[in-house]
Write a structure and sequence with these properties.
By secondary structure, this protein is mainly β. The chain is built from 1 helix and 11 strands. The strands form 2 sheets. The protein has a 9-stranded mixed β-sheet, with no helix packed on it. A hairpin with a 2-residue loop joins strand 5 and strand 6. It is globular. The termini are far apart.
Length: about 150
Amino acid sequence: MLRADLTPTELTLAPLDWRKPPGAFVTATATLHLLHDRLTRIGDLSLKGSGISLLGSADCTGGRISLLRLSRVQFGRNDLSATARLPADRSAPIAVDLSGRTLDLAPRLERKRQPTPHATKEPPPGPPWTLHAHRDRVPTANDPGLERVNVQA
């Protein structure tokens, strides 16, 4: 059993404009399953504390995470679940499936855009990915937001 106090740590989820500041109480726990010193599974994955609750597990292939299942993810007004498939072939896309009651886009949409200098160099591209999301409700900058949203990218 692995336990960690994340209270002094800053956690961010930039795409949704969410942040846990240092000092906000959060603990993480997980059970690591090993076979011949190689990670095969992560069970009972949990983050609990100020403004966040996460429950999940992960399957591993070749000692690395190949499937991440988050059965419950709550932070801010978000209430969702997710599955991410991380292929061994790094040129294959990461496949993410999001579902649940609420994905809150309001903080991201309400944020003022900062002007960027024209000479800014684009960062290198990350790994390819696919996304399938279906939500009962998506709050936006103009509540009540959107109902029954499906996205495939």
